[in-house]
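so im writing up the methods section and need the ATP-binding cassette domain-containing protein record in one place, dumping it here so i stop losing it
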Amino acid sequence: MLDVRNVSIRFGGVSALTDVSFYVNRNEIFSLIGPNGAGKTSMLNCISGRYKPQQGEILFKGEHLLPRSINDRAHLGIGRTFQNLAVFSHMSVIDNIMVGLHHKLKNNFLTGMFYWVGGAQKEEAEARLKVEDIIDFLEIQHVRNESAGSLSYGLRKRVELARAIAIGPELLLLDEPMAGMNLEEKEDMARYILELNEQFGITVVMIEHDMAVVVDISDRVAVLDFGEKIAEGRPEEVMADERVKTAYLGVEESAEAREDA
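--- predicted struct ---
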């Protein structure tokens, strides 16, 4: 579904990504891991359209993404959450989720002026039914009319995920979806991600620092370090890689590995 080929991006004299390649199969949960500053969020920004790499190409379902705008990528079926919460604090939970449906609404400002006769009323009603389904799925019925800014951190994370789901994505990019959560909240979020993948067929690319979660729910993992990919494969294979242990897991190289080097 996603094919990242030799992507490099620099900011001034700093290389955030250098010649990074990987692929993501349809219906996979694919995790990007690595130390802080390794380039993980920069990679999601390149896929979603916030950044444009200086080198390389990114294909989604065989179609080149780099010439496409962020809005175009949403239309193609790419949804996104952010490392730092990006909910509209003053808006209700329902209205936050409705924002995710905006690009799908056919009625514009002019047709909206004829709300009762132009189809906008029916379209809004259908959109709100979809929102209610998402609210039920993420178990946030009890806060549906609350302002997003008044919610706990964990619930705001769910609201942001709900808005990304409302886009109707085939590919969902999750940037540290469990950061700052307690154990119970992490378990709930992991369950939602698994259900989105298994029941709804949504392919997931996820940045996550909790290695227990990564190993439990990921089909494959790629590891970035200083903007370069140092490993890729099944979680158990990647976690056993000496370079990963040294760069990310904080384990010194074994004597055998040093001798081989």
